Amino acid sequence: MMSVERLSIELTNQCSKQCHFCYNSSHPIGNTTWTADELITFVTDCAQAGTQAVSFGGGEPLEYPALFEVLQRLQGMVFRSITSNGLHLWGSTLRRLVSVHPDKVHLSIHFPEQLWEVNRVMAQVKQLESLGIRSGINLLVSASKLTAAGQVAQTLRESGIANDRIVYLPMRGKDTPTPQQVAEVAGKEPFQSMTCLTNCQKSERFCAVTWDKKVAWCSYTSAQQPLESLTAKALDKALEDLPLIFCS
């Protein structure tokens, strides 16, 4: 069996932002079970089995001490992307990230009603672009904040950050918008979102691995299975007969 095409790995559940809705229940005093060597071993084996892209998240990946080492050692092996809140992305941290040249960086806007966050993320995305790093934005869309999200999305598009660089993420758990509402926020133009936007289902192309080395069909489901070893074969085995429990 070929391993999944796209793999999401939570490096840690540590995150200074500690959003109340976080699917990972991340917090400032978080943890991880991944060493750099373990990540390299696992991703290398998955790449040899067919995995083409790995996205690193958390928690906050910039709070994982070995992030830059991992990105550097995996360069040229797979497509490497990170999703960050951007709070630490300045000074020496920004310089170190640019030096290992990830293939893509997406920064999150969790609170579209907070102008300071919107302006910060917009500026950071444009700065990354100017430094030669492919960048984009994950915009969280909540049913109770549709007006704010729509205004931010329009501002982003008018600033030159088009829908091909924005991922419209519907809030999960509670305050979930309808697919039609997400489309309205996206300006009724083609847009990117989660594959489960209209229907909760497994994707043979994608799965997630948690900070404590458990496998799930997505980052939101509560159905998880521990990895028996850090191999593509163990990943495939963990996915066998693994259910997908709807998050909402």
Write the layout of secondary structure elements.
Blueprint: E1 6-10, H1 36-49, E2 53-57, H2 67-73, E3 79-84, H3 91-100, E4 104-109, H4 115-130, E5 135-141, H5 146-158, E6 166-170, H6 179-185, E7 206-209, E8 214-216, E9 225-226, H7 232-239
Parallel strand pairs: 1-2, 1-7, 2-3, 3-4, 4-5, 5-6
Antiparallel strand pairs: 7-8, 8-9
InterPro entries: Aldolase_TIM, Radical_SAM_PqqE_MftC-like, rSAM, rSAM_sf
Keywords: Iron, Iron-sulfur, Metal-binding, S-adenosyl-L-methionine
GO molecular function: catalytic activity; iron-sulfur cluster binding; metal ion binding
Account of the 3D structure:
The chain has 248 residues and is α/β, with parallel strands linked by helices. The chain has two domains: 1-102 and 194-248, Transcription Regulator spoIIAA, CATH 3.30.750; 113-192. The protein contains seven helices and nine strands. It has a nine-stranded mixed sheet with strand order 6-5-4-3-2-1-7-8-9. Helix 1 runs parallel beside helix 2 and helix 5 packs across helix 6. It starts with 5 loop residues before the first strand and ends in a 9-residue tail after the last helix. Keywords: Iron, Iron-sulfur, Metal-binding, S-adenosyl-L-methionine. Residues 1-205 form the Radical SAM core domain. It comes from Acaryochloris marina (strain MBIC 11017).
